[in-house]
Write a structure and sequence with these properties.
- By secondary structure, the protein is α+β, with helices and mostly antiparallel strands.
- 19% of the residues lie in helices and 32% in strands.
- Helix 6 packs across helix 7.
- The longest helix has 18 residues.
């Protein structure tokens, strides 16, 4: 296999080179001590993406611990608590580039206590790298990470079977782990799975091909990251503009200016296009589009723009502007799959705030039809509550109609947060509509619970 590193990769990329490369957002996940931070450090180090002063700092800390070689995990474990405990706690974002592609890497925690941070890091990822210790194989946390990747509709998953040096680089060990994980992730609906045997500590198959595993003929981790097809073309999706702010200067220069500002979540808007404002359902036409102080005829995701409409319509923050005839369904009953991220349980009948794009409304958890059992992907019916790191189906009743796309159609406008109204704590991350191929019809067709009589009855 040809090496994926060329001599000129150590040289800084020009602006022209960077603009010509594509961007890949990817997240890493793995259980504690699977070597995830070491993999990330090795990837950055061997791809010549580490500054000299960063490497010198890592070398000093490593020597202070009595280590003869630099501990590359320290390149990502930046918090003092992380270094002291030897675990990743917070999501660490790293930006690097090769001649072929630019990368935004989210190094997410592997400890079960911090699975919530994996949801954060993977929510915008195009690819997830799931690490497995070759000595331990697929464990519960591995299955949880696969479920989260599937739930978040991450289109590409890499299974990195690490520490192959500790199992004598045995092909059968790798093959058995890859077979088990692929079967599990496929049942969840993950569309593409690539398994790569590696040793992050030694550098085998991370950036350079391994001479210790000549039985493996696939790509290295970096080669796969550089060549995996990604598409950021959201311009053909259903156009959506959540309104963040209404601009009314009311100055002598702009006495009648009324613009609706926000970031286009998906799709394209054009001057003269008929639009509908949700949830009111009122319609108008786009009279103008302001972008960076200039008037344009067309704008697309993810540009931040100000739309001017022909009609004076009562529009405020939280409203959604969409093309007429392409409206998402509006409802007070939101059926979704959620990943519960709070330490306190989410219970049936609980009052919450639901935050969808720029809109926040009161809501009640009317039903929790099922909880996913990670071992066999069965649905445990009517659990009554979800605890930290649980994945389950919920039915939420909102105080007013919300226009929500299915998460399968739009990751931006199909997602929401459930928030504790008492202290603002995020309780759960929700994905509207169907999530897994294993979702049962019973969970999808759950009936609302009895009405609440204490002030939040919608």
């Amino acid at each position: 296999m040809t090496s994926t590193t060329e001599p000129d990769k150590a040289q800084p990329l020009s602006t022209e080179q960077l603009s010509a490369t594509t961007l890949l957002r990817f997240a890493t996940a793995g259980s504690v001590d699977d070597g995830k931070s070491t993999l990330v450090g090795r990837l950055l180090h061997d791809s010549k993406s580490v500054l000299t002063d960063q490497l010198e700092a890592v070398e000093r800390v490593s020597l202070g611990r009595g280590q003869e070689t630099p501990d590359l995990a320290l390149l990502t474990d930046g918090l003092r608590a992380e270094r002291e405990q030897g675990i990743t706690i917070d999501v660490a974002y790293r930006y690097f580039a090769t001649a072929r592609r630019r990368f935004i890497l989210a190094d997410t925690p592997g400890h079960v206590q911090y699975t919530r941070n994996m949801v954060t890091g993977a929510s915008t990822a195009d690819l997830a790298v799931v690490l497995v210790d070759a000595r331990n194989g697929v464990i519960e946390q591995t299955r949880r990470h696969a479920a989260v990747a599937a739930l978040l509709r991450v289109p590409h998953v890499v299974l990195a079977v690490n520490k192959m040096d500790l199992v004598e680089y045995e092909e059968t060990v790798f093959a058995e782990i890859a077979k088990e994980f692929t079967a599990y992730a496929s049942e969840l609906g993950v569309p593409e799975i690539t398994a790569i045997p590696i040793s992050a500590l030694a550098g085998d198959n991370v950036v350079e091909p391994s001479s210790n595993m000549d039985w493996y003929g696939g790509p290295t981790v970096l080669e796969h990251l550089e060549t995996v097809p990604v598409s950021h073309d959201l311009t053909s999706c259903h156009a959506r503009l959540p309104v963040q702010y209404v601009i009314r200067p009311q100055t002598a220069e702009h006495p009648d200016y009324r613009g609706y500002a926000g970031q286009i979540a998906a799709g394209t808007f054009r001057v003269g296009e008929s639009v509908t404002v949700l949830p009111s359902g009122k319609t108008s036409k786009i009279a103008g589009i302001d972008l960076l102080g200039k008037q344009v005829d067309v704008a697309w995701t993810p540009q931040s723009v100000t739309l001017l409409l022909e009609s004076d319509i009562d529009i405020s923050r939280g409203d959604l502007i969409v093309p007429s005839g392409d409206e998402p369904p509006s409802s007070q009953d939101i059926s979704a799959t959620v990943c519960h991220v709070a330490d306190t349980a989410l219970k049936v009948g609980q009052r919450v705030l639901l935050k969808h794009t720029t809109r926040t409304v009161k809501a009640i958890v009317k039903e929790i039809p099922s909880r996913l059992t990670l071992d066999d992907l069965s649905q445990h019916p009517a659990p009554g509550q979800l605890v930290a790191n649980d994945i389950g189906r919920v039915l939420v009743r909102t105080a007013e109609p919300i226009a929500v796309d299915s998460y399968a159609a739009s990751r931006r406008t199909g997602s929401f947060l459930l928030i504790d109204p008492a202290d603002g704590t995020t309780l759960a991350a929700g994905m509207a509509g169907d999530a897994f191929a294993t979702t049962t019809e019973a969970a999808d067709k759950a009936e609302p619970a009895a009405a609440d009589d204490e002030g939040w009855d919608f």
